Amino acid sequence: MVTALLLAIFMLAVQATALAEPVVEIVIQKMRFQPQNLTIKAGSKVVWKNAESGATYHSVVSDSEGLFQSPDFFPDESWSFVFQQPGSYPYHCGPHATKMQGLITVEP
């Protein structure tokens, strides 16, 4: 009985792990998105992590109006977005739009 219960718990944990979306990190450092261009699968979560020193804040803003826009976030803070639909998603940093741009390509 205990063995069957442990096996059932293990199987549920495996299924939950399989259903979790992949997570990919973009590091913001030295006024750059690293990597600048990223290709992911639909359903993936992208996490932008501010790794600047000092008090430099950034944001992540979709070039397609209204698709996604983070609040400003400071060093050691992060923000994430799950990309559900295939396509190309250019974006920029709100406060540093002319210096910091990136592209997320989402494949089926």
Enumerate the strands of the largest sheet in spatial order, edge to edge or round the barrel.
2-1-4-6
- Global structural class: alpha/beta
DSSP helix fraction: 10-25%
Low-confidence stretches: 4-18
Order of helices and strands: HEEEEEEEE
Mean pLDDT: 88
Residues in β-strands, percent = 35-45%
- Overall 3D geometry? globular
What separation lies between the terminal Cα atoms?
Answer: 43 Å
Subunit organisation of the chains: single chain
Number of strand elements:
8
**Largest sheet entry:** 4 strands, mixed
Question: If helices are DSSP runs of H or I spanning 4 or more residues, what is the number of helices?
Answer: 1
Radius of gyration: 18 Å
Task: Give an overview of the whole structure.
This protein is α/β, with parallel strands linked by helices and 108 residues long. Helix content is 17%, strand content 40%. It has one helix and eight strands; from the N terminus they run αββββββββ. It has one helix spanning 2-19, and strands spanning 23-29, 32-34, 37-41, 44-50, 61-62, 78-83, 87-92, 101-107. The strands form two sheets. A four-stranded mixed beta sheet has the order 2-1-4-6, with no helix packed on it. A four-stranded mixed beta sheet has the order 3-8-7-5, with no helix packed on it. β7 and β8 (101-107) form a beta hairpin. The radius of gyration is 18 Å and the shape is globular. Residues 4-18 have low confidence and may be disordered.
